[in-house]
Write a structure and sequence with these properties.
By secondary structure, the chain is mainly β. It is built from no helices and 15 strands. The protein has a domain at about 35-150: Immunoglobulin-like.
Length: about 260
């Protein structure tokens, strides 16, 4: 899973925004860039996503699933008209013959099963550990068990500028990208990178939470996995979401 980027002192979670600058993306009605759709296939250890993306209650839709090193990465899209201020979700993975492999909501405020600050039409990544010996994952469902929605007020205040770099550090995969805040923004930001194979199938989601953003803040953020990724893996997109003040997620660091 993801781990803390110690050099920045930021908490990286084991788990795209309204101003994403990513190749192959589309343009939303508000002029912001939407991450590209990810291709689907059977979720095997090679990182292929599920064949059965589906819309769950509350407008959440599974858009892609990938596996790598025993981790299940899932992207979900907010297909409703309102912002998801906060949602605690249940993730259910089903294998052959309809057998449930995993069904969890995690602990309270678990980063793996918590969504915060997700605008309409945009994606969020979740990362969970599969039981040892899991083979093919045939379908994945994500449904909110606790949810706070709010009217969408327009442009997202955090954006990424410049290309994202995927490198290795002591055998681990590392994504570095520069994020700039423009306009009112909460100090607590969720950043995510979406890694795909040469056929644009999801391999992994790398996710982290970072502190002390404000209007005009520009920082290079480092998102790190505890393992390497397959040859040919690349960064499809990187995104940043300010975590709303109304979300029941405590900010563990004071910014001065």
């Amino acid at each position: 899973m993801s781990r803390p980027a110690r050099r920045l002192g930021a908490g990286v979670a084991a788990l795209l925004c309204a101003a994403l600058l990513a190749a192959c993306g589309g343009t939303a009605n508000d002029g912001t860039v939407v991450p590209p759709a990810l291709r689907v296939g059977t979720a095997t250890e090679s990182g292929h996503p599920t064949t059965r993306p589906a819309t769950g209650p509350g407008g959440l839709a599974v858009t892609a699933v990938g596996r790598d090193h025993g981790l299940l990465s899932v992207t979900v899209r907010n297909r409703g008209p309102r912002e998801i201020v906060y949602a605690r979700v249940r993730v259910t993975a089903v294998g052959r013959a309809g057998r449930t492999l995993l069904s969890t909501v995690g602990r309270r405020l678990s980063k793996a099963t918590t969504i915060a600050g997700l605008p309409p039409g945009h994606d969020f990544g979740l990362v969970l550990t599969l039981p040892p010996g899991t083979r093919a994952v045939r379908s994945v469902r994500v449904a909110p068990v606790e949810e706070t929605l709010a009217p969408w007020r327009g442009r997202h205040p955090v954006l990424r500028t410049g290309p994202a770099a995927l490198t290795t550090d002591d055998g681990d995969a590392v994504v570095e990208a520069r994020f700039t805040a423009a306009g009112p923004v909460t100090p607590y930001v969720s950043a995510q990178a979406f890694l795909v194979d040469p056929r644009h199938r999801l391999v992994a989601v790398v996710s982290g939470r970072f502190y002390c953003f404000a209007d005009g803040t520009s920082r290079t953020l480092r998102l790190q996995l505890l393992h390497p990724v397959p040859a040919g893996t690349r960064v499809a997109s990187v995104i940043g979401y300010p975590i709303p003040r109304r979300a029941p997620i405590p900010v563990p660091k004071a910014c001065r």
